[in-house]
Design a protein that fits this description.
The protein is built from 8 helices and 13 strands. The protein has helices at residues 22-34, 45-55, 71-81, 95-103, 116-135, 166-176, 185-193, 201-215; strands at 2-3, 14-18, 38-42, 59-63, 86-90, 108-111, 140-143, 146-149, 154-157, 160-162, 183-184, 220-223, 227-230. β8 (146-149) and β9 (154-157) form a beta hairpin. 39% of the residues are buried.
């Protein structure tokens, strides 16, 4: 585990970069330092979890293939401790691996090899989404038996509170702002992820599945070929 001496920028934002390939980890860290972030680097699963616990980063760039235990387990463990945006890196093109990562709380993914420019853009997009959520003027949203506290970023259905990842929370909030209205996958992708790519609609589907698992299968209605609608009663 290494703490970089880069300039702290972006309102003091800290990013944890996790990759067992030292060259890749240092290249990513150098690009993010150039963007003004403070960067910490870890090279294995246990080191990544320890760094996330101690440093409380604002975002994690996380490789799937790691020694100790893999990035999927790292993501699961750090999300259980504290919700944090995660950009997952994978050398695999298998859609199953990507969906598993999204299912345990990753917000976005890039397949290796990737452009450093694209990686930096994705990082900024994820952090802008967090900032927009923090700046909302609303205090809470109530739709049927669903209650969303925007200040505390907490969610209840009936008397039961659900623990959501940052992206799951924002996706649910976006749907709840227009209850029963059908929002297209592409629109949700642009609104929540801040980027548009037809392949990314799989990420939307994966996070909707996670919300259904945590809040009830009847909460979000699928409109085949179009998108989703919130149907809380």
């Amino acid at each position: 585990m290494e703490l970089s001496g880069g300039t702290t920028g972006q309102a003091g934002r800290r990013i944890l970069v996790v990759d067992d390939e030292v060259t890749i980890a240092e290249s990513v860290a150098a690009r993010l330092r150039a963007e003004g972030f403070a960067v910490e680097v870890a090279h294995d699963g246990p080191g990544a979890v320890a760094a996330a616990t101690a440093g409380e980063p604002d975002l994690v760039v996380l490789d799937v293939m790691l020694p100790g235990f893999d990035g999927i387990e790292v993501c699961r463990r750090i999300q259980a401790e504290r919700p944090v945006p995660v950009l997952m890196l994978t050398a695999r093109t298998d859609e199953t691996d990507q969906l598993i990562g999204l299912g345990v709380g990753a917000d976005d993914y890039l397949t290796k090899p990737f452009s450093m420019r694209v990686l930096a853009a994705r990082v900024h997009a994820l952090l802008r989404r967090v900032d927009r959520a923090a700046d909302r003027g609303e205090v809470s949203i109530v739709v049927g038996d669903l209650r969303i506290d925007l200040d505390q970023r907490r969610v209840w259905r009936g008397e039961n509170e659900a623990r959501l990842t940052p992206l799951e929370f924002d996706l649910l909030t976006r749907l709840a702002q227009r209850p029963r209205a059908v929002l297209a996958r592409e629109r949700l992708l642009e609104d929540i992820w801040d980027w548009s790519d037809a392949a990314g609609t799989r990420a939307v589907d994966s996070h909707v599945k996670a919300l259904r698992r945590k809040l009830g299968a009847d909460l979000i209605r699928t409109v085949h070929g179009v998108g989703y609608a919130l149907d809380a009663r």
